[in-house]
Amino acid sequence: MSTDTKFINGLIVKEPNERAPDYVKARLSIKREELIAWLQSEQGEWINADIKVSQGGKWYAAVDDWKPDSQRGQQSSRPARQQSAPQRPAPVDDFADDDLPPF
Q: Is the whole model's pTM more than 0.85, yes or no?
């Protein structure tokens, strides 16, 4: 993963208003033409971004260019996520259609 931060031109992130409800996590402003120009310069179908806060307290969006090792061909710098719960087996459909009552 690159250590250089790649900003998204035309996308401005701001801290929510102090009177905003708890479910509002950030405010976004879009400079339409600037964002469109930036998007057209990018490759790929998807662009992932993280909303971050600088050491000075300014909010911003940064491109998340992380890709799995198989797509990148090199060692990942992102730690593996731990699974929170064991996987459950898929449910078994043990009813035949004739077991259902008629409508």
A: no
